[in-house]
Amino acid sequence: MSESEIIENLQLPFASFRLFALEQAIKKGKTRELLALLEQMSVSEDDSECLVLIPYALTAVKSRLSEKTSVETKLDECSDIFLQFVEASDQQQISILVDQAFANALSLAPKAVDWLKAARNDAVVALVLSTFARFWPDTWLASLKPLLFSERLSIRMNALQILVQKSPDLITGNLPELLTSSDPRFRAMAIRGLSLVDMDEALAHFNYLLNSTDNEKKLAALQISIHLPFSKICPCLVNFTAREQDVSLIAKAGILFASNPDPDIPFKLWEIAMQSASNKQVAVKNIIHAVCDEMKRARMLTGEEDDYMNRLQRWIYRYSAGVRLREYIDFLPGASASQVLEMETRLKSLLKNDDVREMFVEAQNWPVSEIAKEFIRKVLQTKHEPAVAGKSSRKFSELSIDEKIRYVALLDESENADKEEVLQTIMQTLMTEPDLSATAFRSALKIGVGSYVNFARTALNSGNPNLQSAAMEYMEEFACDELFLKLGQYLKSLDLRVKRTALRVLKRHDQTQALSSLKAMLLQNDARQHHSAIACMVHFPFSSIRPLLLEFLPVCQEAALLQAGLCLFQANSDPESLYPLFKLQRQIKEGKAIVGEVIGYIIESLKAEGRLPASFSPDAARQEWQNQYHQEQEKLRMPAPYSLQHTFPEALSAFQQTSADFIREIYGRYKTMFNLYFLLAAALCILAGIKLFRPISTEETVVRSGAVSQSSMLLEGLVTSVDARGQKIFIEDAGGKQHMVLAANGTWSRNLKNTKLKLRVTPYRVNQAGMVISQLQAFEK
Amino acid sequence: MNFTIVHEQNEDVCIMRVSGYFSADTGKELAQKVEESLRNGRLKFVFDFADCTSVNSPGAAAVLDIVLRIHDDFRGRVFITSLRSLMQNLFEMVGIFPLAGSADKIEAALIELA
């Protein structure tokens, strides 16, 4: 670690990074800048372990700056070192380790345990461990295990590092505690150790770390990613890229994509780029270029480069048009004649491209309503009409409303000089022709004219959803901050068009929040909200909404919803969807055949796009999926103690946070009426929830997870275990059902194991293993 | 994918020229050559990537392990030279560079190691 990196790490928010940097400063720090920072830290540092090391670091750096070798640390013979170490003061011990033992670690290592015993200060213990780390004698590895639970993070870190590198099997039993550490470096190292014992669980923990909210945790996950198989972490990285807003972290994920180029990645990243705000779009497109460059460099596409680029381009055209078509199909019910005309006009203008036309022809076979099919047929039958009024002798004002809409919708294609004049005229009569004004806002946006923000502000308050939506799209581009202040009210809109535009705006800037809103819609007991949520999903990268769909579809009660969800799978053919769809097929009672058809359709599409290996055999794949499915079910029934579902049970559900968010939102909205009626309804929901999430007995027993509505209950049972932080307690009730009760850190003592407890809790979730997860309300006994 | 590792000796510095695609297999071969040199008392290394087309994740993990072996176990020194920006960024991200030095050319690394 260079001096500048030591300085940089000393300023990071996580103690483990600072501790590591302090150790490095003790070993080799020698600049005045570092000294000044250490002096400043001696006053401002609030971590007790760092405070222990700072005086040693200060002494070491000062000593190097004065170019004097400490008399106390001058030791002549290697054989004398240990004896002097035993007698030395804490400061002297550190000097001996840094100046003498480090250089002779290999020969001194057989006595490493004696050095450890002779160290009296925690800082010295940590340094002994790091000094002898690589040479730690195998016979003394087990003696390090107690140190994994030292109060000092630096000791835990160094002990874990040695065990991970030398004997990961030794830490298996301790992994649950290690994996739940709040320190990202420590957790990352535990995941690396776990990967040597159980790769699937390591990947699950890796993904959880990558999707945390702290940048340091995400960075730690990216750093350890090279120790996990890229083919396995790739879907996690794609999902991460879709959700992440920090372009510097996206660029780091891009380094991994480009270093492990895969012809399928540009397809997935393009989808993300298209759904992102402009700065993220640039970052993602840069990654696509880098991946393509690397594929060429690695000669992965020898002789097929042109073919590949053509396939990618063709897919991009088809995908973009498909998203637009699907969006318009959802708008059709209830759309005015003018709105339909605008949609037709805009779609027809896309048909100049043969790939798009081909996709529209195929879209006639989509599982959509007859009205939608008729709409697609009409778009395909009519010839594209170029921008009209410019060549017409009539003035714009003399055109019929239909002609005006058609003209304005195609304004970006027109070469006429009167574009802005026409737009200005329409804006002046904003409310009189709302559909025409909406078309004008969308065209102004396309052309890049940003001078109508005042009009858009007025249009936002219009009662016309089409105009409101168009104004929102316009303001997102030209007055984004102002729009965001009001976005909440549009997210709550009961109109699908307004709601989905608001959601799309939110998604471009904060996908995590937008996904939470989608989840909240799916959690409501309202089929219209479910349909709206699925309709809105078209605006999200498919890799982000797939987990949500896969959790929702098995429990949705309506065939139309299943069909709508499957339609998204069809429209986003992806090899990563095949196994999840196979799983879905096993989980549902009704609609197995439709899911089977969709799997077949996706396989054919992927083959046509060259995205499946030529050797791919559906029968062999099904056999493999079957095996994988059984293994997963087995793991869910008997989870390992270090499994993600055991250590972070709350992590397994895509609906997890939303449940609480949703309740809060409902409470906020109806708090004045939050009375007995609501409590009664909640109790009924609980009953429904318990019924809904009880394992269903079909030919195969399937463990199914889901949210349960909130209401407190009495839980009585035997404590089976307590987590290291005293935050989670595991209880088995009289019926043998497993419960996990969450409370604040330090609430549960380890001594509670094997005692009987009676608690009032609020259950909010049943995880995939059938464990009920609750929040502690009160101790009853 | 093809790869070769050519080992040259420049006084007390071992120069390993890596060409082709650097993956886990290349890493194993490089580790073996480095191990032989370490056991012969050589503690200064230059890994030259001028002719290396790509380094994938397992390759980077292998480089990290080799660098750790030289740096931590033998108190040796390593310089990595002629990296393309992608490889440079990858090595920086996964923490190879605090342990190894980086230089544009072999000559510059030799001066640093002298």
Using brief descriptors, characterize the structure shown.
heterodimer, A: 781 residues, mainly alpha, OB fold (Dihydrolipoamide Acetyltransferase, E2P), 5-stranded mixed β-barrel, 6 strands, globular, B: 114 residues, alpha/beta, Transcription Regulator spoIIAA, 5-stranded mixed sheet, 5 strands
Topology:
The complex is a heterodimer of chains A (781) and B (114).
Chain A (H helix, E strand, L loop, with lengths): L2 H8 L4 H14 L3 H13 L3 H18 L12 H10 L2 H12 L3 H4 L3 H7 L3 H11 L20 H14 L8 H5 L4 H12 L3 H12 L4 H10 L5 H14 L3 H13 L5 H10 L3 H20 L7 H27 L5 H14 L3 H10 L6 H12 L19 H9 L9 H10 L5 H14 L5 H8 L4 H14 L1 H12 L4 H14 L1 H13 L3 H10 L5 H11 L6 H13 L3 H13 L4 H17 L9 H20 L6 H4 L8 H15 L5 H18 L12 E2 L5 E10 L5 E6 L4 E5 L13 E11 L5 E8 L2
Helix pairs in contact in A: 1-2, 2-4, 3-4, 5-6, 6-9, 8-9, 9-10, 10-12, 12-13, 12-14, 13-14, 13-15, 15-16, 16-18, 17-18, 17-19, 19-21, 20-22, 20-23, 21-22, 23-25, 24-25, 25-27, 26-27, 27-28, 27-29, 28-29, 29-30, 29-31, 30-31, 30-38, 33-35, 34-35
Chain B lengths: L2 E8 L2 E10 L1 H16 L4 E12 L1 H17 L3 E5 L3 H9 L7 E3 L2 H8 L1
Parallel strand pairs in B: 2-3, 3-4, 4-5
Antiparallel strand pairs in B: 1-2
Helix pairs in contact in B: 1-2
